[in-house]
Amino acid sequence: MNQYHTAFTPYPIQHELGKGGCSSILHRDDRIAIRHEYLVQSSTPSRFYQAPEKCFIFVLSGDLFLKNQDNEIQLKKHQGSWLPSDSITVATLLSPQVTLCVINLSDAHAATEKAIAFHKVSSGSSDSFADKNGITTWPLYQGADAAISIHLYPAHYKDTPYYHKKTDQYLICLEGELAISTNKQAFKLCPSIGQYLPRMTRKALFNHNRKSITVLSITTPYPEKGRVLAL
Question: InterPro entries annotated for this entry (predicted)?
Answer without folding.
Answer: RmlC-like_jellyroll (IPR014710), RmlC_Cupin_sf (IPR011051)
